[in-house]
Amino acid sequence: MSKTSLLLAMLASLSIALPVHASDRYRSRPPVMVSPDLQASWVLQLGGVPAQTRGYAAPQRLRQAVPAGRQRIVQQPQQVLRQQPVQQRRVVQQRRVLFPQQPAAQPVAMRPDKPVRTQIEPQFLPQMVQYQTEQKPGTIVIDTRERFLYLVMADGMAKRYGVGVGKPGFEWAGTHKVTAKREWPDWRPPQEMIAREAAKGHFLPAHMPGGPENPLGARALYLGSTLYRIHGTNAPWSIGSGVSSGCIRMRNEDVTDLYERVKVGTKVIVI
């Protein structure tokens, strides 16, 4: 018998022993058992252990290598995230030690050597008061100790204004007349003042045009041939204090009111 005939006879016997039915195609098949060889490392690199091989135990070396590798990949970013806040806190603490917190920059008007109040005390606001004097109505009397300027009125009355006066060492007294009046005057500080302030670290301009920032304020009454004036100010909180270089300071609204009430030639007495 030829080989071909023998093969056909064997197939025929199998078909008789194992009849095939149409419903066999829908039968559940037994699980496919995969060889443990599929646990090789090159298979694991394709995406893990196939579902069919979960029943097999991987070699000890592979079971240890895979989690360790995955742990390094997954946990490394987590460690960085946990360490960043700690490092940031250390940097902040070091900066606090090396660079203590500095106070916010203050405007020139709020320097430590200036009063911190922004409003004058109520007693330095303009008001009518009784004032007994031998001076004629229209005379200006400035009491540098009490920090008041009196414009003498009739019937023993006077209009009183609060003023700022010369600081210690710059006080003066005397009698003069108003020799000039200026609205929004410009300012030319004398050389002595420029040098004195420069020694303190405050540098003054040689000339400043009139305006809200000008230290002479809105109005100025010039006294005799001196460098002293009755003038407004850009620092109204200084009213009631001894802070000037000898001039008499008033609030801008107060000096404007006084400016309208007096004339050139008015007598001014400083006591």
Automatic annotation (TrEMBL):
Keyword match Lipoprotein: yes
Name of the protein this chain belongs to: Lipoprotein-anchoring transpeptidase ErfK/SrfK
Pfam families assigned: YkuD
Pathway(s): Cell wall biogenesis; peptidoglycan biosynthesis
Alphabetic keyword roster: Cell shape, Cell wall biogenesis/degradation, Glycosyltransferase, Hydrolase, Lipoprotein, Peptidoglycan synthesis, Signal, Transferase
Organismal lineage: Bacteria, Pseudomonadati, Pseudomonadota, Alphaproteobacteria, Hyphomicrobiales
Source domain of life: Bacteria
GO MF, one annotated term: glycosyltransferase activity
Annotated GO biological process: cell wall organization; peptidoglycan-protein cross-linking; regulation of cell shape
Gene3D superfamilies on file: L,D-transpeptidase catalytic domain-like
Family: Belongs to the YkuD family.
Domain L,D-TPase catalytic positions: 138-271
GO cellular component, one term: extracellular region
Catalytic site: 231, 247
Alphabetical list of InterPro entries matching this protein: LD-transpeptidase, LD_TPept_cat_dom, Transpep_catalytic_dom
CDD domains: YkuD_like
Leader peptide range in chain numbering: 1-22
